[in-house]
C-alpha cells in the first residue's frame, strides 16, 4: 500500500491571492508596512504564527505574532467572502485526483499549514473530502519542515514512510518529506521555483499534474 500526501496551498489550489489579501489587512490593522506579494508567497506552507514572524524578520514567534495570527484567522472567511474567492484548483488537479482515487493500492492524504477548518473548506468546496482519507494541519502538528505531519499520517494509515510520496510546491514540503524518510515530488506550478525545490531535496519535479501519475505505477 502506498500513501500520497498532498500539500494544499500552491499544490492543489491557487490561494496566494486570498492569503496575501488577508495578510495585507492583518499587517494594516497592526500598523505594519504592507507586505509584498513575493514575501507572502515565500511563507505559504508554514504554520501561520511562524509565517507571520518570518515576514517580520523574527526567528521565533513572539506575542505580537500570536495576536496577528488570531486576527488573520478572524479575517480569513470575511476576505474569502468579500472576494467571492473559492481557492480554485490548478488546471489538471481534479483529473489527477480522480485518476488515482480509485486505486486499491493507494491512499490519499493532505499535509498542510492551513488550519483544519481551512482545509475542510477546500475539501468540501471541490468535493475532495470523499477521496482524502487522512490529513494533518497546523492545528495538529508542528509546522513544516518538521516531519510529524508525514509520520502521523503514516501511523494512522499503517503505511511505511518509504512507501509514501509527499507532493508539494514549497521547500518546506521537500524538507519535511526527506526528514520523514519519504519521497518528495516538487510541483512547478506553485510558489517556489524549480531550482529551490531541487535544492531542498526534491526527488522529482512535476510540470503538470498528470506527470504525478507515473510515480504511483
TrEMBL record:
<dbReference type="InterPro" id="IPR050155">
    <property type="entry name" value="HAD-like_hydrolase_sf"/>
</dbReference>
<dbReference type="GO" id="GO:0016787">
    <property type="term" value="F:hydrolase activity"/>
</dbReference>
<dbReference type="InterPro" id="IPR036412">
    <property type="entry name" value="HAD-like_sf"/>
</dbReference>
<dbReference type="InterPro" id="IPR023214">
    <property type="entry name" value="HAD_sf"/>
</dbReference>
<dbReference type="InterPro" id="IPR041492">
    <property type="entry name" value="HAD_2"/>
</dbReference>
<dbReference type="Pfam" id="PF13419">
    <property type="entry name" value="HAD_2"/>
</dbReference>
<keyword id="KW-0378">Hydrolase</keyword>
<dbReference type="InterPro" id="IPR006439">
    <property type="entry name" value="HAD-SF_hydro_IA"/>
</dbReference>
<dbReference type="InterPro" id="IPR023198">
    <property type="entry name" value="PGP-like_dom2"/>
</dbReference>
<protein>
    <submittedName>
        <fullName>HAD-IA family hydrolase</fullName>
    </submittedName>
</protein>
